[in-house]
């Protein structure tokens, strides 16, 4: 399936305004399949930052047009959305004729949790509506077949494009069998990311930054280049987005020449810094903060070596996704090497004097990508691009 343009108000983070506020109104007529699937999608956004590498799924149980229960996927290895929804039902509830709306095909295998598809048969449920199938080869249609065989009506494809976009890292990882890499940058109308001195705060306004902060907990690892780190001293936190704020991201600095070696341990707290191997002897005083890359700073393969080194680092959970936030040189290098699978591009109205030509990027990631989101935050414009399958 191709990655299709999304309905207004939806992006790779889900319902865009939900990233800014905990309370949002529906974009669909009450009681329609789209209305209830949107509710499941919004519910699934509560999984941000905790469910990865599992998909963040939402489930809503409805009877006679009235919601009975809802649930979202918990932390990795913990209960899935369907079990949370069924577990919150009153003990005496009658599900005869009920409908269930779930954003992803219920699983049909035993992993850390038992199969969710086993929850439905024998309860009197009349219909299950699913946004999209699960590409995991252990499921891949088997969950829907089990439900249909049990006599439950199965309808699929409601808000499919919007749910697939929200589940992009999970779906793309299952298809590519590799870590997903995503670019994010904010540019002026001229295409510049900073002035000649490297100053870039703030090109975009508060809502754009809040959306970016939501993305930071959506992806597993954040990356910036050494020059960006030295000039901006970015916190790279999720402080400004709507609740829940369930994790601060793993943070990595790409520093092939060892420019950060002059900083103190306190200035590098919470970051891992990747430097080329010849700088490692100087980095010993920083302990494990610095990680050596088997390359030199001028190697044409440096981008590929950086990618390979980062993906080999030990993390608390399997690494599914990486977001690179800058600077322009690092983004260009990785784009040239075909690393990126998607891009979030903000264009603000801020203008600086004395612009730097090296701090310049196009409005999109180039050929082979499809525009799926165009959204306006006040005076800022967000475009989101996904590489075609």
Structural account:
The structure is a single chain. The chain is α/β, with parallel strands linked by helices and 389 residues long. The protein folds into two domains: 10-167, Cytidine Deaminase, domain 2, CATH 3.40.140; 178-387, Dihydrofolate Reductase, subunit A, CATH 3.40.430. It is 22% helix and 23% strand. The chain is built from ten helices and 16 strands. It has a nine-stranded mixed sheet with strand order 12-11-10-9-13-8-14-16-15, with helices on both faces. A hairpin with a 2-residue loop joins strand 15 and strand 16 (380-387). The longest helix has 13 residues, at 206-218. The chain starts with 9 loop residues before the first strand and ends with a strand. The model has no long low-confidence stretch (mean pLDDT 90).
* Individual helix count: 10
Side-by-side strand order of the widest sheet: 12-11-10-9-13-8-14-16-15
Helix content: 10-25%
Task: Determine the strand fraction and express it as a percent band.
Answer: 15-25%
- What number of structural domains do the residues give? 2
In CATH terms, what is the fold-level topology of the largest domain? Dihydrofolate Reductase, subunit A
CA-CA gap between termini: 8 Å
Rg from C-alpha positions? 22 Å
Full CATH superfamily name of the largest domain: Dihydrofolate Reductase, subunit A
Backbone shape: globular
Largest sheet: 9 strands, mixed
- The structural class is alpha/beta
Order of helices and strands: EEHEEHEEHEHHEHEHEEHEHEHEEE
Total strands: the figure is 16
Q: Give the overall average pLDDT.
A: 90
Q: Which architecture of the largest domain does the CATH hierarchy give at level 2?
A: 3-Layer(aba) Sandwich
Give the C-level CATH assignment of the largest domain.
Alpha Beta
Which runs of at least 5 residues are low in confidence (pLDDT < 50)? none
